[in-house]
Structures are given as structure tokens and as C-alpha cells.
Amino acid sequence: MRNFTLLISSALLIFSIKSEAQQLPPTSSYFINSYLSNPAFAGLNGNKIFLLNRSNWKANTNKTESFLASYNGNFRNGSDGIGFIAYNDSRDILSRSSITGTYSYKVQIDKKSMLAFGFSIGYEQAKLITERVDLEKTQKITLAEKSNSTTDFDGNFGVSLHKNGLNIGIAGYRLLESNQIKVNSEYYDDFAYLFEKHLACNVSYLFCLKNKNFKIEPTLQARKSIDSKLNLDFNTAAYYKSKLWISGGYRQLYGYDFSAGMQFYNKISLGYTFAIQQKKNTGNFHEIFFGFDLGGKSFKNDGDKDGVSDLFDKEPASVKGSVVNNDGVALDSDNDKVADGIDEQPNTPSGATVDSHGIALDTDHDGVIDLFDMQANTPEGCVVDNFGIASDSDNDGILDCFDKEVNTIHGAKIDKNGTAIDTDKDGVPDVKDREPETPHWQHIGEKYNINASKCIVDEWGVAKDSDKDGYKDCIDGQIFSPTGAKVDKNGIAIVKPDDIIIEKVVDSDGDGISDDLDLEPNTPKGSVVDQWGRSPLVSQDPSSIHRINVDEIEDSSQIWDYYVIIGAFRYYNNLKNYQKYLLKTYDEPTQVLVTPQNYYYVWTKKIFTKDEAKAEMNRLTEKRLKDYIVGNPWMWRESKNK
């Protein structure tokens, strides 16, 4: 298309140069009303009415005066134009009256260029102004066959190219000329182009300055008949906001023109021209015109700034930023009725409802657009699948986003939070619980308690009964009753008076600590001992060698094993009772370390690094095992080669 445009432009320029022609109607205001220059311009810039009067500045015998009225406009979406011109022109001894009708057709080349073609048919009457005829003088012009008046038809044709502010036009006038008006050869160049076949050409370009309020448009015009000399005119007009303008021009055969004008209310135009003539016998001219803009599409306007002239714009109010085609219609690649230029989601799936930014609606904000969403009102925050359905991992009817137990056992009855019902609160849901009514009470102040959460049960919800006496550990007053012993309602073995053995307190070393508690039963006589019967003067105390601080641990040591100690005993029976107590009260399983000195140390975890030691210390602290026999957890080491 660009090559086509350049080809047409070159052809028109070459034609205009070779023809050496440019039509200039009897007016200096052609740059305001371009229709007067070429029938192809009809309807180019909307619908306009134009009235003009041109006359000599001073009255003289053969006063030249022109009255002109014109209308031109477009229809059928702007591609077709029509125009009408009616005028009366008196010059020398001849008066002409004419009415002309015009039709033009415009072809769009691309967004910013077009070709226009136009033709006009007119009817003209020419009359001699008898009071101006001086038979003693040679007349400049006269009518054929010495008649006083003639009538004739006239035909004109024009073609023009318009591209990015460049306007090129060529027109042929008086194509039906019948030589009814004769021009004296002495004045041929002054009048021939008015009364004979001739060519007219104009070239103009509109420059927009950096300050977009100001524009400058130079225009070159030429006209040439078969026998007349080439007549060139040049004019430059300056515009401010298209509201005010001034211009200056030079006409090769006539003189200089100076014009000024303004527009009111975007509708009414007034202008004035003063023409200084080179030939004294014609005198100076002044020209007054009035214009009224009826609106309509104009090639020079682009109301929505989309790069397509309003004349061809099929969507004259495209949204700002839209990318448009040659017809000015905003592109919409995904057919969501939001132009690509402002579409924030240019590949919206077909059929999706979108917002004003072209983004497919997702009413429930779950990340799946409404078009594909099979659960349009998913609660906020829920994880959904590709179809917008909120996940229910355990199929319990409670969405994962509300389910406090997302992996409920299949078939379990649940509460409103999706948690499997655990009637006896033993930590095993009813659906799996083989003992769904784990004793709901604890023997605490002889009060009934439905909460069995402190009962230790296996994975099937069966409460432990360590001594097999029929009383679950959580309500057994004596977890380790003797095997086979009868027990009371609290699970405590019943002992007959004859079976009671008074415990003998044995203190072998006489240090005041009974042997069952004495960690050093052979303390030298008179030694000062602690509550565990240990004398600080006895080097056999294993803690003096093996008890260490956490910072003394060697990570991944090849020499030492490390333990967290929470109890120290001399006798095995005391040790076992302590372990049972920890298990019953705190559910804390333990193991025993026996030293070479035959001490029993209760430990919770074997340690390999400082971090493990700190973590275990923190765990025991948080569990609040307040019954440490050793007061606080110890770090203990033993040789791997013991």
C-alpha cells in the first residue's frame, strides 16, 4: 500500500510539472475553502457553507467584483461528497453567472492517506455590460458572433492525493468550453484561463510545530491553458488552534495578498484579504468572506487520536490507547469487547465475561474464572481444583479451608469443624475406637469426670491396664499391683493384716540416710553427707567425673556417650517405682544406665551433639517434670570403652 501511495504521488507530481497548471478561482481564500480549487475536495473537511465578496478597493470604470456562495459536504460514511457553487463575476465589459454541482468519491489507501476523485457540471450565462462598452477602444474580452449574451454548459474534473498533511490536486476546467468568449491577444494571459480549457494544480503541506497549537501550511498553485503562460502563485498560512490565522501570498501575474481571519464558537468563520495588484489598470482588491461549519466528518480531524482520519473512522470514539485497523476500529484479539490497547488480559478465553479492563471475571476470587468455575461461590481462601471446586481431601463434606482435620478417617462421624467425633476424648475417633467408652472418670477427689483425655490408650483406643487388675491405668490407684492380688475399687491391692510386713529401716554406714535411698551406703563413719548419702570427700561419687555441662559435649564424639539424666538410685526397687511413676503421671518412658559403681541413673535420651542436648533439656522443661530426683536434668558422659 505504501508503494502504491508513492507511485500515485510521483505520477501526480510529474503530471503537474509537465502540465504546468494550477486552477485559481476568482478568490484569495482557497486555503480556507479548498473546494474552490478542485472538485475532488468536495466534502473533504465536513459540511460547510461559504459566502464571499471580492471587489476593487477603489471604484473605477470597469470595476471587477465577484459574489460567490458555496456548499460542500459528505455523506454515506464520508466516502461520498457533494458540492454546489453559485457566483456572479463582473470584470471588464463581461458579466458571468454560473451554478455548478459537484460529486466526489474518496478511496482510503491506509490509515493516513487517501485518493479523491471529483467532477462537476455547471450552467453559465455570460452577458456584455453594455454601459461599459466603449466602441472607440479595443475591448479586452468580448462575446463570439457579436452577441450580447451566451449560455453554455461547463464540466470540470479533479483528482487529489492526501497523506500525512500533504495535499496534491490536479483538475481540468471548462472541459465543455465552446469558445463563446473571445480574449484580445494583447490581454490573453490575463483572462484566457478563465474562459478556456485549462489545467490547475495545487500542492500544500501542513506542518505541526513543537507547540502543537501552532501550524504552518505553505501552498504552491499553478495554472496553464493551451496558449497562456504558466501562472504560479505561492501562499503561506499560519494557524493558532485553528481559531486564528494569517497568511501572505504572491501571485505571479497579479501581486500580493495578505489575509487574516478567525473562527467563533467552532462554527462561524470570518476573514478579510487585501490584494495589492501589480497592474495599475486593475487596481487593488479586498475580499471578505463568511463561513459556517455544519459539522460532519473531516479528513484533517482525528477526534479519538487513533491515527485514522474521522472521514474514514468507523469507530470515531475509540478508547484512548487502542490499537486500530485501517477503518479506525479498535482491535480486539480475544473478542471480549475490550480493545487490545487497554485489555489487561488480551487472551481471555472465548465466552468469558470480563470487566472494564478486559480481565475475565472471577467472582469468588479462587483463581478460576467464572466461565470454567463449577463452584461460583467458593468461600474465600479455599484451595480449588482446575474447575474451581474447593478441595475436600477426606470427603467428609467439610471443605479443607474450614476442616480442622483434613485427613479424617473414611466413614467417621464428624462435627461442624470436620473433626471426627471422639466420644470418650481418648484421642482415637469413634470409627476406630474398639473401646468407645473408655472409663470417663478419674479417681480425683472421688468426682465423676467424663473427660478421658488423660487415659493412655493404644492405637485402637483401648486403655492400658499395666497390672492387669481390671482397672485402667488412668483410674488405677496402684498401677503395678502384685500379680493376682485382689484390689479395691481404686485398683489398690487388698492386704490382710497378717500379710503386712513392717519395713525395716537399714542404714549400713550410719550416715542417717536409709540404704534404700543412700547412693553411697559405705560412707566413712562421721562423714558429712547430702540427702542422698553422698560425701563430697568420697572420690567414688561418679558424678565428680561424669557429670558435665552442655558446653563440654564433643559433637559426634568417638570417646564418650552422653545421656540426659533425671534420676539417680542406689537400689533397683526404688528405681523401678520411680520409672512407673513417671510413666503414669507424665507418660514419660525412661531407660537406666548402670555405672561401674553400681549406681542406677534414669535417662530420657542418648545425646550426640550439643544441639540435641539443648533440645532435650527444653523439652523436659516444657513438660514440667517437677519430680526430678536429681533436682534438674543432668548431662552425663560414659566412656565408650567402659
Describe the secondary-structure layout.
Layout: H1 2-19, E1 45-56, E2 65-75, E3 80-91, E4 94-110, E5 113-128, E6 141-143, E7 149-163, E8 166-173, E9 181-183, H2 188-195, E10 198-205, E11 207-208, E12 214-225, E13 231-240, E14 244-251, E15 255-264, E16 268-277, E17 285-298, H3 543-546, E18 547-548, E19 560-569, H4 572-586, E20 591-594, E21 600-607, H5 610-623, E22 634-639
Antiparallel strand pairs: 1-2, 1-17, 2-3, 3-4, 4-5, 5-7, 6-9, 7-8, 8-10, 10-12, 11-12, 12-13, 13-14, 14-15, 15-16, 16-17, 18-22, 19-21, 19-22, 20-21
Descriptive account of the structure:
By secondary structure, this protein is mainly β. Among the domains are: 49-294, Beta Barrel (Porin); 547-639, Sporulation related repeat (Alpha-Beta Plaits), CATH 3.30.70. It has helices spanning 2-19, 188-195, 543-546, 572-586, 610-623, and strands at 45-56, 65-75, 80-91, 94-110, 113-128, 141-143, 149-163, 166-173, 181-183, 198-205, 207-208, 214-225, 231-240, 244-251, 255-264, 268-277, 285-298, 547-548, 560-569, 591-594, 600-607, 634-639. Mean pLDDT is 79; it is low at 1-25, 440-450 and 499-503.
Number of separate strands = 22
Order of helices and strands: HEEEEEEEEEHEEEEEEEEHEEHEEHE
- Supply the CATH architecture of the domain at 49-294: Beta Barrel
Regions with pLDDT < 50 over 5+ consecutive residues?
Answer: 1-25, 440-450, 499-503
Oligomeric state of the chains in view: single chain
Structural class: mainly beta
Overall geometric form:
rod-shaped
Radius of gyration: 57 Å
CATH superfamily of the domain at 49-294: monomeric porin ompg
